[in-house]
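Good morning,

Attaching, inline, the backbone tokens for the sequence recovery test we're adding to the shared suite. The designed sequence is right after.
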């Protein structure tokens, strides 16, 4: 792993992941971790409003209760919130391969006796105990600097400092409007290669029923200009600025955001890219946005919650936190960099469609084969490849 900073916050490797006995985990490991990290849990936990949560793994159950100043853990179930899952899914949650949100999103959790907020707030406490990260308070997400934009020739150490602190960056005029015009023209020709039903081409509909191609994955296959920009020294400079050892840019995703989408997702709601899992294996990856068109109140734009990449934040409305949000206006040819676990969303356009191309700069995996196996498990959940409930497993 590269030098320690707030961009590279990896703390696990797939190759080091050890199996464990569920009984021993609850009866021994979790108790000792809760004790060990009590000072990281106590300041933030009271604001979470924690009610009792029973975790039922196969035929056994344990109940977590907030006692006012610490977590109480006992065997058996209570009448409160019930989180039922199989041993493999619990193992994957403990190892941070998946989050409870991944199981909820995949429709694999019985929510009839379970509040999502309660489950996710307890997940914050669990992660604090297992990972030694604080249950966040406002101090943990405080950002030193007000919003500012950078010029390409600004001092890279200033950019890095801002990125590490705020979790995002805006650099003006990295590319020319003419370079972006070429990319925009390639949108139309590339789109011809994404037939309806192609899983690499995502569609969404406006109120008139028209279906729009809003996302082209691996766009550079059909754009020589995009292939050149990915390999451009200006992108290499941004990668170097982070101070991390990063692999070449990932396949690009070309987004086209029409006005008035009512069915499907052209503009994502608040999320971290690690919302479904694997934070401690791969975050924070810098995500680079090429602004093909302007971004503003008319075109829509990226909105970020600065400082959230440094904290266990799963929702913009997380209890106990007063998140600041910032809207990133930009011109065609600008670049944005947001970290994969900075809480972010896309504000839809109001009058004019927006185009932006994203690529991710991932950290070098110490064991690529093991990492690929971990990613494959999470991707199966994301793709809905696992169905059927508690015992379903690939
Ligand atoms: Fe995202």
């Amino acid at each position: 792993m590269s030098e320690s900073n707030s961009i590279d916050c990896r703390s696990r490797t797939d190759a080091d992941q050890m199996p464990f006995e569920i009984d021993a985990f609850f009866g021994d490991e979790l108790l000792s971790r809760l004790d060990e990290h009590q000072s990281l849990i106590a300041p933030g936990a009271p604001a979470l409003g924690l009610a009792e949560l029973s975790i039922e793994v196969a035929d056994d159950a344990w109940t977590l209760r907030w006692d006012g100043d610490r977590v109480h853990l006992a065997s058996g179930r209570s009448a409160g919130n019930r989180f039922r899952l199989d041993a493999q899914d619990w193992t994957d949650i403990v190892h941070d391969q998946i989050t409870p949100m991944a199981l909820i999103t995949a429709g694999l959790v019985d929510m009839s006796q379970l509040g999502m907020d309660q489950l996710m707030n307890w997940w914050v406490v669990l992660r604090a105990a297992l990972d030694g990260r604080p249950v966040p308070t406002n101090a943990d997400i405080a950002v030193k600097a007000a919003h500012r934009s950078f010029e390409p020739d600004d001092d890279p150490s200033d950019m890095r400092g801002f990125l590490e602190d705020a979790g995002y960056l805006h650099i003006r005029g990295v590319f020319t409007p003419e370079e972006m015009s070429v990319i925009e023209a390639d949108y139309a020709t590339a789109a011809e290669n994404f037939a309806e039903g192609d899983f690499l081409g995502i569609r969404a509909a406006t109120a008139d029923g028209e279906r729009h191609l809003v996302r082209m994955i691996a766009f550079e296959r059909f754009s020589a200009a995009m292939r050149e920009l990915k390999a451009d020294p200006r992108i290499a400079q941004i990668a170097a600025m982070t101070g991390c050892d990063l692999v070449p840019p990932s396949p690009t995703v070309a987004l086209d955001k029409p006005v008035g989408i009512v069915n499907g997702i052209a503009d994502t709601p608040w999320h971290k890219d690690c919302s479904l899992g694997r934070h401690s294996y791969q975050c924070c990856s810098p995500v680079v946005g090429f602004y093909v068109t302007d971004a503003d109140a008319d075109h829509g734009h990226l909105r970020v919650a600065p400082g959230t990449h440094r904290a266990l934040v799963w929702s913009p409305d997380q209890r106990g936190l007063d998140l600041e949000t910032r809207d990133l206006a930009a011109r065609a040819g600008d670049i944005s960099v947001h970290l994969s676990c900075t809480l972010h969303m896309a504000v839809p356009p109001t009058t004019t469609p927006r185009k932006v191309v994203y690529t991710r700069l991932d950290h070098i995996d110490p064991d690529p084969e093991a990492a690929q196996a971990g990613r494959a498990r999470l991707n199966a959940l994301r793709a809905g490849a696992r169905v059927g409930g508690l015992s379903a497993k690939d």
